[in-house]
Amino acid sequence: SQFADLSDAANRNHEALRLAKHEMNESRRQIQSLTCEVDGLKGMVRAGGDAWHGGGVRAQPSPQHSSLSRPPKTERGAAAADAGDGG
C-alpha cells in the first residue's frame, strides 16, 4: 500500500510539474508577444516624435502674436537694468 501511495503522489507531482511547465511556456509566449508589441510602439513613438519635433508640428507663436512672446532672459535682464537707471 505504501508503494501505491508513493506512486499516486509521484503521478500527482508529475502532473503538477507538467502544468507548471505549460504555464511557464505560455508566460514566455506572452512575454515575447508583449515585448514585440512594446518594441513596435516604441518605433511608432520614435517616428511620431520625430515628426512632432522635426516636422513643424511644434507650437510656435504666430507672426500676429509675436509681440506677446518674451525676449530671452539676457535681454530682459539688460532691459530691466536700463529701466532702473532712470534712462
Automatic annotation (TrEMBL):
The gene is Prph. GO terms for molecular function: structural constituent of cytoskeleton. Residues 77-87 have a biased composition (Low complexity). GO terms for biological process: intermediate filament organization. GO terms for cellular component: axon; cytoplasm; plasma membrane; type III intermediate filament. Residues 47-87 are annotated as: Disordered. InterPro entries: Intermediate_filament (IPR050405). It comes from the Eukaryota. It comes from Pitta sordida (Hooded pitta). This is PERI protein.
